[in-house]
Amino acid sequence: MYFDACFARLFSFSGLAVSVALLITTTTANAVDLIDVRDFESLSQLAAERSQREYEPAPELPEPLASWQYDDYMKVKYRPERATWFDQGLPFWLETFHRGFVQTDLVELFTLNPSPSGDPISQRIAFNTNDFVYDAPLNAEEIPPAGHAGFRIVGPFPNRPDAQEMLSFIGSSYFRGRSGDTIYGASARGLAINIAMMQEEEFPDFRAFWIQMPAADSDQIAILAFMDSPSLTGAYRFRLVPGNAVTRVKVQADVYYRDRPEKIALAPLTSMWMWGDGLKGPPKDNRPSVHDSDGLLIQTGPNEWRWRAFARQSYPSVTSTEVESLHGFGLIQRNRAFYHYDDHNARYDKRPSVWIKPDAPWPDGRIELLELPGAHEGIDNLAAYWLPPEEESAPDQSATETDPSVESAANPGSSVAAIDAVSEPDGATEPPQPSLQFAYEVSFFPGDPPEHNVLGRATNLSVTRPKNANEPIEMEIRLAGPVLRGLPAEHPPSIQSNAIAGEICEEELERTDEGDWILHLGVTLAEDNSGERPVELSLQLISEDQPVSETFGYLLPPAEPEFVYPAVYTRQE
C-alpha cells in the first residue's frame, strides 16, 4: 500500500522542524487583546504592539498527544455535526483540527458574528473533546484541554449538493485550497524567513484566526490571521471565493519586524516532485509519475512566460530567476492525464495548480526555486517564492524616511511596499508602522492559468542518457499551443537556445499530425564540466521575430540521479 500523500504534510525542509510557540494573550494598558480584534485595522494594531514585545516560544505539546504516532492520530475523527455554523443554513461552516503527532502548533480560533450595532462580536471557539470521536484504545477522558491545531472551511461548491473541504489552515503559516474540480495538492504559506540559506530556516506561525460569519446568500468568506515569529509579527486578511473551476483567495498583509530577517520571501509555495518526465521511479514502483506539480511557471509580461520543468537532483538545489516585473508565478500540475500517474488512490491527475497574482506587478526582484531530494511523496521537497529587492526585504531599521518603493504618486501601482520602521522616542504612544505591506491573489485550479492559452507550452519531455559517456544526452520536448498549430511544416519556427555547463550539439524540430512540435536535442558537457554539475538549458521557439512558445528551462543532470528509496517503494531495505 502506497504512503497516503493526502495526509497532512510533514512541514519541514532538510529535516528542519517547524517551530511552535505559545500565543501570549496577556496585555498591557490600552493594548489590543485577541478578543478585541474586529477587523484588519485592529488586527494590524495588535501585530504592531506585539512586535514591540519579546518573542516567547511555546511549551511542549502535553502528553499523551506528544507521544502519538501516525496510527494514533488517525484514530481521532471530527464529528461533522459539531462544526461551527453547521446547522444555521449558511454556505460555509468550520471544522477544527486536533493537536497531536506532527500537529504540534497551538492556534486560537474566534468567529466574528454580526450584531445590531454593526460592529462584529468576537466569540472564541473553545476546544471540546465532544467534537471528536476517539477510536480505541484512545480515551477522551485522558485527552487534556490542548487547544486547536488549525481549522478547515467546509461547504458545497457552487451548484453542487455535497459539502466538501475547501480551504484549510494547519501547521506554521501553511494553507491549502482546492477548486471543485480538483483535490488538495500543493500548499501556500503566509511567509518564509531565511529559507534556502546556510542556517536554520525560521518558520513564522499563524497563532490566531478570526473567521467572519457569512451571510446566508454569500459566495465568499473572510478570515483574519495573526502571525508571530522570533523576527516579526504580521496581520493577514484572507478572502475565500470558492469555485468549481477556480478557487481564489485574496491576501493582504502588514508585517512588522522585531529583528530584521536576513532573507524574507513573499507568497511562498510548497509542493512535491518525486519522479516523472526525465526521471524514472524506483524499480518496484510501476507508477510512471509521482508529483503534485510538474513545473514552475513565471509570467513577466502580458505575453511573456517562463516554464521550468522539475528535475529532482540528489542534493539540495537553488535556482534564481531575475524578474523586472512580476505578473504572476506558480507551481503548476500541467499534465492532467490519469495514465501519466496511474494512481487510483493519490489521484495526482486531480491535484491543483497554485498561482500567485500580485494586485499590481511586483518590480525588480527574483523568483527562487528550492528543490530537495525528498525521502518520499508524503514530504514536500519543492518551494518557490518571491524575493523583493534587498532594500525592500531588509529595510534599514535606523532610517526615518519612507522607502521610495511604497505606492505613491511617484510609484503608482505597486502592491508590495517596504516601509522603514521609525524609531519612536521614549514615551511615545504611537505604534510602529508596518515594515512590509503586500497584497496578492492565490488561485487553485486544474492545469495552466487561463491567460496562458496562446503561446506553445512544453507538455512532455524525455531524457535518454547514452551508455558511452562521450556521446550526447538525447532530449525530446513536446510543445503545443494555438500559435504553434498554425505554423506549417514547411515554415518551422527557429530555435533560440542557451546552455550553461554544457553545449547543445544537435537541434531538430518535428511537426506532428496534431500540429504540435517536438524538439530533439543533443546535449554534451562543457569542457570544464566533468559531470559534477547539471547542464542548465533555456529554449524558446521564434517565428517572424516573435516568440511562439514559452521559454523552457531545465536543469539536466549528466547522470541518472541515485536515490535511496524507503521500503514502501522498493519493498526491500
Give a structural overview:
With 573 residues, this protein is mainly beta. Among the domains are: 167 residues, Beta-galactosidase, Chain A, domain 5, CATH 2.70.98.10; 93 residues, Immunoglobulin-like (Sandwich), CATH 2.60.40. It contains 5 helices and 34 strands. The strands form 5 sheets. It has a 16-stranded mixed beta sheet that branches. Strands 2, 6, 7, 8, 9, 10, 15, 20, 23 and 24 form a 10-stranded antiparallel beta sheet that branches. The chain is globular. It starts with 39 loop residues before the first helix and ends with a helix. The N terminus is likely disordered. This is Periplasmic glucans biosynthesis protein MdoG [Precursor]. One of its GO terms (molecular function) is catalytic activity.
Under the CATH scheme, the architecture of one domain is: Distorted Sandwich
Helix content: under 10%
The rough form would be described as: globular
Biggest sheet descriptor: 16 strands, mixed
Number of helices: 5
Distance between the termini: 16 Å
Detail the poorly predicted runs: 1-29, 393-414, 419-425
What name is given to the CATH topology of one domain?
A: Beta-galactosidase, Chain A, domain 5
CATH class of one domain: Mainly Beta
Question: What amount of the residues lies in strands?
Answer: 35-45%
Q: State Rg.
A: 25 Å
